[in-house]
Amino acid sequence: MKCIIANNQKHFYDQVIVRSKVFLIEQKVPIEEEIDYLDSEATQFIVYDDNDNAIGAARFRIVHHIGKVERVCVLKEYRKKGVGSLIMNTIENYAKSLGIKEMMLNAQLTAIPFYERLGYHAEGEIILDANIEHRKMTKKI
Asked: What are 4-33's pLDDT values in tens digits?
C-alpha cells in the first residue's frame, strides 16, 4: 500500500472517484459542496493498494502557516486497515518538509477518536459542514 501526491491525470481521476464514492454516494454530500475551487490550489494525496486500486484520498493546503488537511476518505471496505493512518502520516511528513509546525482539520464527529489516536486535539464547538457535524482538531508536528 502506498500514499503519494497526485501528480498526473490518472492520480487526479482516481482521487475524484474515491472522494465521490465516499462523500457523494455514501454520505450524500451535495456535489457543489464536495468539489470546490480549493481543489485546484491544494496538494492532492491518493492511496493505492498492492494491486494499484485507488482506496483512499485527501487534500492538503497551507492556510496562515498552518497545514490544513481536508477531504480525508477511505473506501468502506478498506477502513480499519491502516489506510487513514498512512494518509495522515504521509501528509504530516510532507508538511514538515515544508516547515509547517501545526496541523488542523475539521473532523466528522465519528472520526474524532481516530484523529485523537494520531495526536490531534478537538477544539471549540460543533460545526456543520455539508450537513454533517464536525469539530476542529489541531496538532503540533
From this structure: 999 999 999 999 999 999 999 999 998 888
- Cβ neighbors of 138 (< 8 A, separation 6 or more) are 102, 103, 104, 120, 121, 123
The torsion angles phi and psi of 49, rounded to 5 degrees, stand at -80, -175
Strands 43-48 and 2-5: antiparallel
Which of 115, 112, 107, 114 has its CA nearest to residue 132?
107
CA gap 19, 62 in Å, rounded: 21
Three cell numbers at 74? 477511505
| Tens-digit pLDDT profile for residues 92-123 | 999 999 999 999 999 999 999 999 999 999 99
2-101 maps to which CATH number? 3.40.630.30
Handedness of CA 62, 68, 70, 73 (dihedral sign): positive
20/31 Cα distance (integer angstroms) = 8
- Predicted TM-score of the model (pTM): 0.93
Domain ranges within the chain, ordered by starting residue: 2-101
